[in-house]
Amino acid sequence: MSSLPLKIGIIGFGPFAQFLVKTMIKQGHSIRANSRSDYTDLCNQLGISFFSDTTAFIESQNDVILLCTSILSLSKVIKSLPLDCLKQPTLFVDVLSVKEHPRDLMLQVLPRDSDVLCTHPMFGPESGRDGWKDLSFMYDKVRVTNEATCSSFLQIFASEGCKMMEMTCEEHDELSARSQFVTHTVGRVLAEMEIESTPIDTKGFQKLVQVKESASRDSFDLFSGLFIHNRFAKQQLMNIELAFETIKQQLVKKTNEEDSEQS
């Protein structure tokens, strides 16, 4: 089953939005983009419309407005939208890596007759370059009255074989802090240590190098956004610090015991 053709407006047309759009175009959806940078040439190549004027973009009668901004810029972007220019109730969707933050912002700022769908595609241009089959897609129908539009949007991902995971924004952020944030943190620590491959790498070390390289490809803004706007991340950072100190103390204790036996 494929989704019904939608008019999808995208705010923030960076690499991740461009990655998603290629599949949406292939499925027959009508795409229009708005971004701080000028993507006119790229949009012309893709055969979609680019709006440099946000008011004209909002007035273009989108079925869906997809928020693809960074975590740190979302508040400024959404509060600056000329929402009084909306010509119809619209489904607003975000794809941020944190969920409670965009949910709360959208409920606070958007018109009450606009629907809110929070999502997190758990993949990107690298992991999804050969297709989206079996890749996880999290979503939370925060406020949905137009089920047809919402279902058609979700079908974009379901029809590509994504593993569709419905959960609350709170559940997502708690799980994400224990997985995505921890992974990014470990990767950033390894990058600070400047670890590199050696001629005698174990399989385990090769995986650590991959974690470091993956974390380094993402911006520090993304990493800091995962920390600042996920209330569960603070505890995970404390857990990492505590675990490191515990292991350090165990090593010191073992060293002291060894020294005592040899003296």
TrEMBL record:
Tell me where in this chain the Prephenate/arogenate dehydrogenase domain is found.
Answer: 6-263
**InterPro entries associated with the record:** NAD(P)-bd_dom_sf, PDH_N, Prephen_DH, TYRAAT1/2, TYRAAT2_C
A Gene Ontology biological process noted in the UniProt record is: tyrosine biosynthetic process
Question: Per UniProt, which keywords does this protein have?
Answer: Oxidoreductase
Molecular function, one GO term:
prephenate dehydrogenase (NAD+) activity
Q: Which PANTHER family match?
A: AROGENATE DEHYDROGENASE 1, CHLOROPLASTIC-LIKE, AROGENATE DEHYDROGENASE-RELATED
Please name the source species: Erythranthe guttata (Yellow monkey flower)
**What is the recorded name of this protein?**
Prephenate/arogenate dehydrogenase domain-containing protein
